[in-house]
């Protein structure tokens, strides 16, 4: 961890450093994706460069709020909800920009879109910023500023299936060319974007126990089961609580409906738009079905991953079956 702080100056230094990191070419993606282990997580070279730069120069302010997640755990949904909560007085149901834009456009990722993050800080003294970075790799200024963080997490098996399809589609591989068993195996061994998954959850979880006023944990499955309670909790936590009048007027329900998978996934922009030259918006809206993993996992995979998650997270009471 300290290497970045003390030795890395130029872009060239960073490139040299990345070359020394452990590397893994993802066989199930036919070698189209190579991950590097930087600090304690795996990621792509292009992202690690931006991570190092953010670690060296990003300046968080105490009022900035971070939306944190392991990939495929509900990030797009959380971004939509936060945007809708924060802007609810500006737009009505028919004028909300979520109807014509991918939710990711409103809340940029620290390690992917640093310029947009800086722009959003310039535009608002309460910037909302997303990140998939593990807790221990966050820029120190975020921790030192006591910024609030919302951490959304999801059961590991659905995350694996969602990650499998997302990566496969990004690299334009049909299912028959991208064996799920191999994807599972890599994930199981902790090798996945921003993985290991369990370390990611554990890092934020530990900190949320130390500083509950700073980190709100939200479970994807709970958001689905009890959206009203959880959206209220979310709004309060980020400093935009609903008034009694708003509650009576059904504002929470309208936000839930606006941000629902059924609504967002059927919008023209999310069916046919592009997030960037490689990623179609539709890839962020696949099925959103709980327990889709049952269509992919063998009994042996179930046993292996359940045992592993129990071993890694069971002791802290976070059993994510
Ligand atoms: P990201 O990390 O790449 O941003 P993320 O949004 O965290 O992805 O996860 C995508 C998953 O959330 C997809 O799950 P699936 O593959 O099992 O279908 C996606 O369908 C689901 N999702 C996207 N939007 C919503 C939503 N509004 N409500 C519920 N689930 C959603």
Provide structural commentary:
Keywords: Transferase. By secondary structure, this protein is an alpha/beta fold. The chain has a single domain, classed as Rossmann fold (3-Layer(aba) Sandwich). Helices cover 46% and strands 10% of the residues. The protein contains 16 helices and 7 strands. Strands 5-4-6-7 form a 4-stranded parallel beta sheet, sandwiched between helices. A 3-stranded antiparallel beta sheet has the order 1-2-3, with helices on one face. The two termini are 32 Å apart. The site of 3'-phosphate-adenosine-5'-diphosphate has 22 residues, from helix 4, helix 7 and helix 14. 3'-phosphate-adenosine-5'-diphosphate binds at residues 69, 71-77, 80, 158, 162, 165, 259-261, 264, 284-288, 292.
């Amino acid at each position: 961890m300290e290497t970045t702080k003390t030795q890395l100056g130029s872009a060239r230094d960073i490139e040299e450093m990345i070359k020394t990191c452990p590397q893994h070419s993802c066989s199930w993606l036919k070698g189209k994706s190579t991950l590097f282990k930087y600090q304690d997580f795996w990621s792509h070279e292009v992202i690690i460069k931006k991570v190092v730069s953010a670690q060296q120069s990003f300046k968080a302010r105490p009022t900035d709020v971070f939306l944190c997640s392991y990939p495929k755990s509900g990030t797009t949904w959380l971004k939509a909800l936060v945007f809708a909560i924060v802007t609810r007085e500006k737009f009505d149901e028919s004028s909300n920009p979520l109807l014509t834009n991918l939710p990711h456009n409103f809340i940029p990722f620290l390690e992917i879109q640093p310029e947009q993050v800086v722009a959003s800080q310039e535009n608002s003294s309460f910037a909302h910023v997303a990140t998939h970075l593990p807790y221990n790799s966050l820029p120190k200024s975020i921790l030192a500023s006591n910024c609030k963080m919302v951490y959304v997490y999801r059961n590991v098996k659905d995350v694996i299936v969602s990650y499998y399809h997302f990566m496969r589609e990004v690299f334009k591989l049909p299912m028959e060319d991208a064996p799920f068993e191999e994807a599972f195996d890599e994930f199981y061994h902790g090798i996945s974007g921003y993985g290991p998954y369990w370390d990611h959850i554990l890092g934020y979880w530990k900190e949320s126990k130390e500083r509950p006023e700073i980190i709100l944990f939200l479970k994807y499955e709970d958001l689905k089961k009890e959206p009203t309670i959880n959206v209220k909790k979310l709004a309060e936590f980020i400093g935009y609580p609903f008034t009694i009048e708003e509650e009576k007027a059904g504002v929470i329900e309208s936000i839930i409906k606006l941000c629902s998978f059924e609504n967002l996934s059927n919008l023209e922009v999310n069916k046919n738009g592009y997030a960037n030259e490689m990623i179609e918006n539709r890839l962020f809206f696949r099925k959103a079905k709980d327990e889709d993993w049952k269509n992919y996992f063998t009994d042996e995979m179930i046993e292996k991953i359940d045992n592993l998650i129990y071993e890694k997270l069971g002791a802290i009471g976070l059993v994510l079956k």
